[in-house]
């Protein structure tokens, strides 16, 4: 059983009090049902997302994830300062891996020139083969062709 959103807010307040002297601004917290990552922080939305799928597999990691994302409120990167902060608040940097968190690509593209395949989660608009296009610039002749796609929601 994962903590409720109300419980996440109360942990946020507790960690903020314990580790930041209450200096962190309040942000929104929600579970993401779609995200496969442990968590994310969006500065523009001032929103911490906690990945539901990840924590259904690793429920013991919720506090670590919450602390990790809380550090991102002041520091968007994973630089040396960030790592010091992680240590200070007793969190770990590395998210764990699990086969069910790896999702098969929804789209498979192919270069008409060299036939290299490009599996992707998202649709390409204008993309050409990185190997065939000179200087990595878009080249109509090597525009990636959609070969295969899966229905949305496929896992
Ligand atoms: Zn991070
Ligand atoms: Zn190519």
What does this structure look like?
- This protein has 155 residues and is an alpha+beta fold.
- It folds into two domains: 5-99, Metalloproteases ("zincins"), catalytic domain (Zincin-like, 2-Layer Sandwich), CATH 3.30.2010.10; 107-149, no CATH class.
- The protein is 28% helix and 17% strand.
- The protein has a three-stranded mixed sheet.
- A hairpin with a 4-residue loop joins strand 2 (39-42) and strand 3.
- It is elongated, with a radius of gyration of 20 Å.
- The two termini are 23 Å apart.
- The mean pLDDT is 87.
- The structure holds zinc ion (ZN) (2 copies).
- One zinc ion is lined by residues 111, 113-114, 116, 129, 131-132, 142.
SSE inventory with pairings:
Blueprint: H1 5-20, E1 28-32, E2 39-42, E3 47-51, H2 52-57, H3 62-72, H4 80-89, E4 107-110, E5 117-120, E6 145-149
Parallel strand pairs: 1-3
Antiparallel strand pairs: 2-3, 4-5, 4-6
């Amino acid at each position: 059983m994962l903590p409720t959103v109300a419980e996440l807010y109360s942990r946020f307040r507790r960690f903020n009090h314990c580790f930041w002297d209450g200096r962190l601004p309040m942000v929104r917290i929600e579970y993401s049902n779609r995200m496969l990552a442990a968590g994310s922080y969006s500065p523009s939305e001032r929103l911490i997302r906690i990945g539901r799928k990840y924590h259904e597999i690793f429920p013991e990691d919720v506090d670590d994830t919450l602390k990790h994302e809380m550090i991102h409120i002041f520091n968007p990167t994973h630089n040396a300062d960030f790592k010091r902060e992680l240590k200070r608040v007793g969190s770990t940097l590395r998210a764990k891996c699990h086969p069910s968190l790896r999702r098969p690509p929804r789209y498979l593209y192919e270069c008409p020139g060299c036939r290299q395949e490009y599996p992707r989660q998202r649709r390409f608009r204008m993309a050409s083969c990185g190997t065939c296009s000179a200087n990595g610039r878009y080249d109509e002749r090597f525009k990636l062709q959609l070969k295969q796609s899966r229905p949305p929601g496929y896992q």
